[in-house]
Write a structure and sequence with these properties.
The protein has 375 residues and is mainly α. It has helices spanning 28-31, 36-46, 55-80, 96-121, 128-149, 171-181, 185-205, 207-224, 228-248, 252-256, 259-290, 294-305, 310-319, 321-347, 360-363, 366-374, and strands at 92-94, 155-158, 166-170. The protein has two domains: 1-206, Zincin-like metallopeptidase, N-terminal domain (Lysin, Up-down Bundle); 226-375, no CATH class. Helix content is 69%, strand content 3%.
Length: 375
């Protein structure tokens, strides 16, 4: 898709706060580590073009995706028995650069404490020239990573730490995927909207969940951030054990983590498995009522999830995206097994508090969660 989608969405870049990170991070110590404006610029430069559409087609696609998001609200709430407060922002339809910009802003809010830790452990402040170069190098790395990911994501509920959470639908990727899978565009867009609307509902109907996930992610990021003294040891460890990253698919972060940090990663992964699996179950349970071709879409989409080859598969393993695919499968199996045992109301006890969330072992043993929570 040509990069006209955001331009055809009047709310794009304003209500989401797309300019929150448009200047170099506040404070000299932070700018020495990440130039967020340069991350956005790099991402826009490296991002792949989407499928070609005319301006009229782009307008129609944006309107249809907005309609799909609106139509998903009632059936998802009914199926999940989760009910959000009124007044949530409407879904924001973005193009790939718009998705990159939103995620740079979210990364900035998430990573500022990490940058503060690195600055505090430095033995001396860098010169202005070194700070500018260092910030741009890191910004370029972030922009390059997001440029790669920007063609993979169909939608996202952006938690926007420090900002306004919002449901994002990435129009070029949705159109590219529906064309590649050769599925009905009307049905596919509504199927994707069901998944993302479930995420919106999870975080708005369960008020404590967003802060819990943000705080856990931020705390883990700070804990994992290396001090200057750690870097040499970590690079040596990486060169000795890089094969483990490829074989496990868990990502580079797991390679450097201590046993305690790995336990925290496992707990966070269990929560993500729950959220992704629950969204998959809801989208499929709603589907037959409103999406005639849902069975065909699910079959073709699951084939797509496991079909990465070549350099794409290598990058997925390095970034931990292979593990992400398992989250959908394991989480959906957990949700269905628990619901079969204790019904929808019994499953929804998972949202009562952080203590009710499944532990890592329980994702693979739903009966253990039922015993712990329901006795």
């Amino acid at each position: 898709m040509t990069e006209t989608t955001v331009a055809n969405d009047p709310s794009a870049g304003r209500s989401h706060g797309a300019e929150r990170g448009s200047t170099v991070a506040v404070g000299a110590s932070r700018s020495a580590y990440v130039d967020y404006a340069f991350a956005k610029k790099t991402g826009r430069t490296l991002v792949k073009a989407g499928p070609a559409v005319t301006s009229a087609e782009a307008n129609d696609i944006v309107a249809d995706l907005r309609a799909a998001a609106a139509e998903a609200t009632a059936p998802v709430a009914e199926t999940s028995d989760l009910h959000a407060p009124d007044g949530a922002p409407a879904a924001l339809v973005v193009d790939r650069p718009g998705w990159i910009s939103a995620n740079v802003d979210s990364f900035r809010a998430l990573l500022d404490p990490v940058v503060d830790k690195l600055a505090a452990t430095g033995k001396s402040s860098p010169s202005p020239a070194a700070a500018a170069i260092g910030g741009k190098v890191t910004g370029a790395e972030m922009g390059g990573l997001l440029a790669f990911l920007s063609s993979k994501v169909l939608g996202q509920y952006d938690l926007a730490p420090g900002g306004t959470p919002r449901l994002l639908l990435v129009a070029p990727n949705i159109v590219a995927t529906e064309r590649k899978l050769q599925v009905d565009p009307h049905d596919f867009r509504r199927w994707v909207a069901m998944h993302e609307e479930t995420h919106r509902l999870q975080f708005t109907a369960v008020p404590w969940l967003r802060d819990h996930l943000v705080n856990e992610s931020q705390g883990l990021a700070v804990d994992l951030a290396p001090t200057p003294e750690d870097l040499t040891k970590r690079f040596e460890h990486l060169t000795r054990n890089i094969s483990d990253v490829f074989s496990s698919g868990e990502g580079i972060a797991q390679l450097f983590a201590t046993p305690e940090q790995k336990a925290r990663i496992a707990r966070l992964t269990a929560v993500m498995s729950l959220l992704e699996g629950h969204a998959d179950v809801v989208m499929d349970d709603v589907g037959p009522r409103v999406i005639p071709s849902v069975a065909e879409i699910r079959r073709k989409f699951d084939q797509r999830r496991t079909g990465a080859v070549g350099i794409d598969r290598i990058l997925r393993r390095l970034l931990g995206l292979e593990a992400k695919m398992r989250q959908y499968r394991d989480g959906a199996a957990f949700v269905r097994a628990v619901t079969d045992r204790v019904g929808r109301d019994g499953f929804n006890a998972v949202w009562h508090s952080a203590e009710s969330l499944p532990q890592p072992a329980e994702i693979l043993d739903p009966a253990a969660w039922v015993r712990r929570v329901h006795g």
